[in-house]
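Page 37, top half.
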Amino acid sequence: MTEKICSSGWTEQTRMSLLERVRWESIVPYADGFIGHHHPEVPGGQIFLTSASTPGNPTRHWIALQAGATLDVLDNPVNGCWWTATAVGVSFRELLPYEASDLAELRSPGNTAAAGAARAAAGLWDRMDQQRKRWFVTAFPRSDPRTVWCSPQELPPWTEPSRGVLYLSTDWRYRYEKCRWAIPRRGFWEWQLKVEYTSEQGHRHTEVLASDLSWFREPNDYLNERVTIW
């Protein structure tokens, strides 16, 4: 019998298949829910916002798993090695224009969801006077949120919106609160949706299912003409 060799060099088809089983969901803290334009910037984002928190009123995000789906992977259909998904998480890093490498990325954001807004933000920074730039550095220190990891078994199932508004059951928060996170403030955030795996032979691997640069705005920016980049 041929000895199994575990491989984490999975195909793009495998990655896309995994991505179809998860969805990034959000709930925006409006008294009457949210009805309006939705941003397709994140996995499953056709009906969910890339929304930042406002002081004292956080917008909550989470990863949801399709009912009955698994994120485990068989790396080869012939004598393949079984990889078990142990944790799912989303990491974030804010692009801050006073850091040279971040400003360079804002100026040349590539084919990302926030490309147009990022270039506009870089232009705005270039036009700021030195006093305002010093204020910005003091007012906006780096505060990247920690990565929230949850096992696939801990993730909530996909939510079914009703008329564009998410409804969460009364016990939802008790069951899934630890798997939620908040973007601290509006701005430009790089993110990666990752899954950690352990093979049947004990090997470890982290698979990045999706990544992008998104422009997270405060909820009110979606409802009127006032849009503040920072």
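Page 37, bottom half:
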Amino acid sequence: MSSASERQARRVQRYYRWLDGISFYRERRAAGEAVHPVHRALADPEGGPPSPLVIHRLMLEGVTLPEAPRVLDAGCGYGATMLDLAPRLGGDWTGLTLSPEQAARGNAALARAGLAERVRVQVQSYDAPPAGPFDLIYGIESLIHSADPAATLTGLARQLSPGGHLLVVDDMPEPGLPPEPAERLAQFKRYWRCPVAPDRAGWITALRASGLDLVGERDLNPLLQVRGMAQVAPRLAEVRNRSWLARLLGLGVRAEAEIGGLLLESLQTEGWVHYRLLVARKPA
């Protein structure tokens, strides 16, 4: 792992330590959830209610897995995706997070579900992944934190089995943004600790450079539950005004996370950022 990747891993680890420590994600945990998915809800194309679990079904459409797959979740948060999919798909699952709090809560939830023998959360960077081969590797809203996405994908692709799939689900800005949305994007990247945030073409180029074939993609923006700038502006102003001193002192991580999320909503509503799924396959 490069020195830049190591520095970024420490930066992201501090970020989530703050958010986990002040219960930012616990507040967003729905009643009855073992652990909350740290990714956004989508409208269900099949008519069900909007849910963070919808992406789990959509990302696996057309992906063929063996009877007992070996799976790597590259940036698993509290392990909610594995908790949802592993009971249905079987196999052996490993989730990676930089947050000890997320790992502890995720492993406790997996143990309560009776999955601990074959599903686990490890405190480990996806830039130094465990040895494969894996039949499926995915990153949901996690790979955007990479300091070098091309190197990250190359490292993950090495651990894929022949015929295995690598899925990227993330926010991808449009190229050539005008100055005003470009400034909002820069603020989002800074507040969410996303130094590069490639566009669609950048991700596809990196996937192909890692030896993978792009076999599917989907623009998920039509399924997002987001608001435009006019709707988020009052809350944005409130959080900025209330937190300016904390942010100046480096103590405003919670406020930064919320500001970044509000800015991202506005960019998605206006079409400057698209939430996309890319499906790549390693040649057999």
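Margin note: The first helix runs from residue 3 to 21.
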